[in-house]
């Protein structure tokens, strides 16, 4: 049999193997035969043996023993052996192996060969696996071939020059003169390579960019020739003349016209001509139009041209191809901030994309829909988004709810509409909202004093109907505890009043306390609401006393502590109960410790240069039973602010004396140190020493970009002598514009008292891009060495 048949026969036998073990046996026998052929020297079969070895390599089996044979075949004078040798070098060698240096001289000789086919083999190999040293040695040879007479060699030399520039950027000046002359070539392959080479030169060297801006008229003429040329079978793709070259030219024009008025003016007419004359019914035409749009948006183009580009993207939204719809919405997302009105014209089409079956398209449509929300269309857009929230996939609910909250806070036409919208979201997807939603909604309710009666009635109905959505139940319990007297009066003009008795309200709260679906945090809200009702009702105080006393022996320490404190109010401090449980004052949105949608401009870093006393709006860790007694509202993020009382009454005097017990507590402020700042994400670390060996580390992440950061995760590692325990994070979505934070608590036990070090891995997604970084923390804030609060 001839050698070629032997190769085909080996392929046939390997493919006919029934098991993996049988295939391995066949390949082992063949590799043994190939080694024997290599040892026999020049017998005319080496190239065919190497070809068989390359097929074995393609199947994933070791073939490293053929590397030196590649070097020998490349040095052979026969073209058939050179071809297989160069192919083997491209597959078996790379720049990290020493054997690759042995072929440098052979490549240099072949670059000067009289046959253009031998030259092309050397060019392809150098462009594929040439190391930086090889590129430096052979750069002058490549520059000489750029001026060769054959287009076949010019094309391959151009692409080889691109590889050299990427490996050795300082060689850009060597290829700049030749690259400019290549633009006068008629061969499309050479032109394509020249445009790629010029693009690489411009991206690597700003000085080169200024030189090639003078070639913009020449590039415009080449592009016009492609757009207006007649049918050419050699270059026609779906009715478009060489779309690959057109895309490359448009990409280069985008680089040359960026932030340059002269270059931008020279290409405006061309871009308008391409945008209006290119057929978008085929994929090739859509590719050219897409690059045209990107170029228009990136240069200093005219306003009418930008509107035309947005309209092209709007047409893409109607395309049946989901890939085209996806890239269209991705591009619109980037320009919606600068050309908001132009994108608004396609709002209906974008909203329709929310109904697409593809999750990726839905996600892009959601991001773009949220970006299009404004004060003018807030009601109509929110209606569509709420419908989408009820049917969207589980993985999009958190992002949808977060976007609705941000838009409602920014553009709400009225407080009632704002409250209704948030309650709708909590009813539909309460389990997928951010942790700060509950305190934010409570703050909003407290500021809308005229809607207290309406809100408490609506929340009571929602609580009676369903207690599965924990954030909704928490807000309902808080409102019933604060405004239970308004609920019992039954006088509400905004909503149809319902006659509710004291027993009905207590039954609802007891249902929450006893339900297996209720979380410990929600039970804390319900228990506090029950206690607060003791000052708002008259006939069922004993029942409230019995409910509270039951939880005095609860297995949950938080509930047990609250119940003990509330029992103390009933017994030892009953004369203070009315003052302590009175209605909460209106909470300031920008009060210290509050995280409800502060704008980036209003965020201020605390001054840690000197200690400050505890502010009224901040809660500190209880230091005694007296502090425990004051922590009546623990479990909410609402700051404790004791209301002023006249000094003439005994009750007020006792309250003042009791509150004055905290006068000696002035803890040293715990410093917060920034350890990571990248892509708009900021990560700060704060340390608090609990005992001699235990330290609590709090990592706080914030987001200053225009889009929410999703899938946020933190991983930490410490030395083996330190024990680490990571608590559950507060969430995995960081709101945009610094409107919220995500915290992660880490407990460290350092029994050997070694120097603390920590390595933190940060992973997150922003606008579809996945980021991952590692942060090394070698020094902790000084508060890690001192207790956070001095003992009484």
From TrEMBL:
Highest taxon listed in the record's lineage: Eukaryota
Residue intervals of the GAE domain: 668-781
Entries under SMART domains matching the protein: Alpha_adaptinC2
Residue span of region Disordered: 587-611, 634-653
Location of this chain's protein in the cell: Cytoplasmic vesicle membrane; Endomembrane system; Golgi apparatus
GO biological process assignments: intracellular protein transport; vesicle-mediated transport
Keywords: Cytoplasmic vesicle, Golgi apparatus, Membrane, Protein transport, Transport
Pfam families in alphabetical order: Adaptin_N, Alpha_adaptinC2
GO cellular component, one term: AP-1 adaptor complex
Biased composition (Basic and acidic residues): 601-611
InterPro entries: Adaptor_Complx_Large_Subunit, AP1_complex_gsu, ARM-like, ARM-type_fold, Clathrin/coatomer_adapt-like_N, Clathrin_a/b/g-adaptin_app_Ig, Clathrin_app_Ig-like_sf, GAE_dom
Membrane-topology annotation of the record: Peripheral membrane protein
Family membership noted in the UniProt record: Belongs to the adaptor complexes large subunit family.
Alphabetized PANTHER family for the sequence: ADAPTIN, ALPHA/GAMMA/EPSILON
Protein name (Swiss-Prot/TrEMBL): AP-1 complex subunit gamma
């Amino acid at each position: 049999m001839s050698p070629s048949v032997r190769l085909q026969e080996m392929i046939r036998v390997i493919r006919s193997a029934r098991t993996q073990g049988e295939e391995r046996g066949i390949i082992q026998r063949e590799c043994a035969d190939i080694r024997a052929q290599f040892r026999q020297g020049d017998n005319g079969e080496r190239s065919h043996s190497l070809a068989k070895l390359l097929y074995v390599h393609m199947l994933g089996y070791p073939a490293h023993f053929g590397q030196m044979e590649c070097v020998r075949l490349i040095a052979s004078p026969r073209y058939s052996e050179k071809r297989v040798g160069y192919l083997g070098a491209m597959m078996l060698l790379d720049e990290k192996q020493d054997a690759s240096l042995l072929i440098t001289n052979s490549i240099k000789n072949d670059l000067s060969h009289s046959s253009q086919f031998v030259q092309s083999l050397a060019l392809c190999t150098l462009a594929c696996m040439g190391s930086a040293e090889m590129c430096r040695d052979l750069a002058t040879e490549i520059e000489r071939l750029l001026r060769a007479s054959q287009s076949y060699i010019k094309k391959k030399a151009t692409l080889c020059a691109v590889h050299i520039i990427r490996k050795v950027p300082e060689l850009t000046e060597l290829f700049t003169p030749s690259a400019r002359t290549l633009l006068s070539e008629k061969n499309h392959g050479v032109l394509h390579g020249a445009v790629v080479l010029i693009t690489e030169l411009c991206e690597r060297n700003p000085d080169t960019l200024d030189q090639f801006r003078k070639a913009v008229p020449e590039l415009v003429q080449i592009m016009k020739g492609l757009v207006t040329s007649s049918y050419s079978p050699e270059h026609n793709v779906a009715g478009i003349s060489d779309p690959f070259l057109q895309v490359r030219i448009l990409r280069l024009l985008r680089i040359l016209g960026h932030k340059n008025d002269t270059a931008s003016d020279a290409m405006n007419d061309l871009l308008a001509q391409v945008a209006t004359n290119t057929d978008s019914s085929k994929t090739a035409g859509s590719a050219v139009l897409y690059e045209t749009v990107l170029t228009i948006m990136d240069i200093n183009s005219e306003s009418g041209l930008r509107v035309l580009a947005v309209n092209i993207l709007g047409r893409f939204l109607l395309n049946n191809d989901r890939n085209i719809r996806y890239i269209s919405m991705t591009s619109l997302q980037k320009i919606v901030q600068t050309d908001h009105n132009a994108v608004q014209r396609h709002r209906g089409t974008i909203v329709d994309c929310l109904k697409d079956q593809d999750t990726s398209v839905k996600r892009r449509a959601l991001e773009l829909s949220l970006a299009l929300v404004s004060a003018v269309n807030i009601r109509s857009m929110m209606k569509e988004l709420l419908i989408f929230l009820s049917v969207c996939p589980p993985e999009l609910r958190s992002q949808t709810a977060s976007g609705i909250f941000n838009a409602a806070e920014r553009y709400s036409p009225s407080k009632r509409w704002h409250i209704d919208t948030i309650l709708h979201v909590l009813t539909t997807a309460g389990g997928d909202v951010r942790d700060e939603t509950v305190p934010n909604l409570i703050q909003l309710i407290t500021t809308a004093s005229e809607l207290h009666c309406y809100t408490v009635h609506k929340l009571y109905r929602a609580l009676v109907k369903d207690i599965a959505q924990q954030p909704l139940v928490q807000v309902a319990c808080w409102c019933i505890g604060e405004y239970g007297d308004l609920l019992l009066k039954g006088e509400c003009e905004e909503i149809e009043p319902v006659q509710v008795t004291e027993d009905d309200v207590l039954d609802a709260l007891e249902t929450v306390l006893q339900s297996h679906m209720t979380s410990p945090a929600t039970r804390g809200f319900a228990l506090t609401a029950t206690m607060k009702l003791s000052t708002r009702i008259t006939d069922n105080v004993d029942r409230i006393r019995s409910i509270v006393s039951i939880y005095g022996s609860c297995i949950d320490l938080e509930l047990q502590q609250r119940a003990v404190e509330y029992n103390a109010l009933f017994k030892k401090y009953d004369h203070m109960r009315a003052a302590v449980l009175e209605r909460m004052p209106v909470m300031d949105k920008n009060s210290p410790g509050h995280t409800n949608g502060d704008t980036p401009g209003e965020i201020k870093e605390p001054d840690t240069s000197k200690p400050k006393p505890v502010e009224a709006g901040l809660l500190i860790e209880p230091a005694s039973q007296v502090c425990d007694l004051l922590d009546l509202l623990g479990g909410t993020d609402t700051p404790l602010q004791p209301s002023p009382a006249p000094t003439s009454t005994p009750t007020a005097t006792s309250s003042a004396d009791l509150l004055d017990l905290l006068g000696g507590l002035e803890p040293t402020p715990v410093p917060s140190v920034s350890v990571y700042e990248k892509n708009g994400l900021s990560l700060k670390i704060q340390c608090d020493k609990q005992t001699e060996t235990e330290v609590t580390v709090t990592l706080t992440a914030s987001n200053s970009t225009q889009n929410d950061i999703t899938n946020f995760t933190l991983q930490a590692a410490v030395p083996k002598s330190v024990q680490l325990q990571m608590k559950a994070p507060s969430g995995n979505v960081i709101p945009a514009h610094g409107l919220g934070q995500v915290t992660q608590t880490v407990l460290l036990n350092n029994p050997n008292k070694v120097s603390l070090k920590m390595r933190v891995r940060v992973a997150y997604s922003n606008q579809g891009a996945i980021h991952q970084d590692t942060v090394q923390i070698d020094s902790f804030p000084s508060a890690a060495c001192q207790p956070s609060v001095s003992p009484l």
